[in-house]
Amino acid sequence: MNIPQHIAIIMDGNGRWAKQQNKPRSYGHFVGTDNVRNIALKADELGVKVLTLYAFSTENWKRPKEEIDYLMSLPAVFFDKFLKELMEKNIKIEVIGDLSVLPVKTIKVLNQAIKKTKHNSGMILVFALNYGGRNDIVEAVNEIIKKGNITAITEQDITNNISTKNYPDVDLMIRTSLDYRISNFLLWQLSYAELIFIDCYWPAFNGEKFVEAIEEYSNRQRRFGGLL
Ligand code: FPP
Predict the structure, then answer these.
(1) Most buried of 33, 75, 110, 224, CB within 10 angstroms?
(2) DSSP character for 204?
(3) 68-110, pLDDT tens digit by residue?
(4) Going by DSSP bridges, is the β-strand pair 6-10/172-176 parallel, antiparallel, or unpaired?
(5) Residues having CB within 6 Å of any atom of ligand 1
(6) What letters, b where the CB count within 10 A reaches 16 and e where it falls short, cover 164-175?
(7) pTM value?
């Protein structure tokens, strides 16, 4: 099996999964958070180098305040439960997106996890939080402008200044729940990624289904616009 170096996932369907179980949406997010641990450990075991998870988009602020507050409490829930295990697996935590407007407590919890795992040399687990793909490109261009005296820029300039500049390009993007959208996720970085949409809500997505998706990726022939 050809293991993608960088996998990005849109973890969709927490709410619908909860509804199916006659539970509140928050329960779906709670179980979905546990599932982040399962899939991250599986990715690590398989030898994935970078796993980027879409945890909160710039559009998610449109949700009811109660749900936003709950989502913002999840990093604390996640790291309280699993940071020790992630450390043992030598996993490094990083974040992309504009953290500055998140609740102070959420920022603190995230920064603690980033700091604690900073010297880990294994898989990088990236949470995209208050992340938007268009904004990511705009911020990259602003970075370039700040460096001064620019009349024209190249694709490489954007790649070198975008939030994911230290990671390889995304090879595989998985979206659970069968919505066929990118939803302003890594727009620049997904240019040549294989896209796989899975008929399963995020809390029910497991290691076995993850491996099946990677098998499907393995069987695709990536031509990057050229001929084989
Ligand atoms: C999409 O389901 C899911 C989200 C908006 C939140 C995803 C976040 C997590 C799984 C937890 C993140 C964990 C950490 C540590 C940051 P939805 O609510 O859009 O589901 P629906 O489409 O069925 O309503």
Answers:
(1) 75
(2) G
(3) 999 999 999 999 999 999 999 999 999 999 999 999 999 999 9
(4) parallel
(5) 11-16, 29, 32-33, 36, 55, 60, 71, 74-75, 78, 127, 202
(6) beebebbbbbbb
(7) 0.96
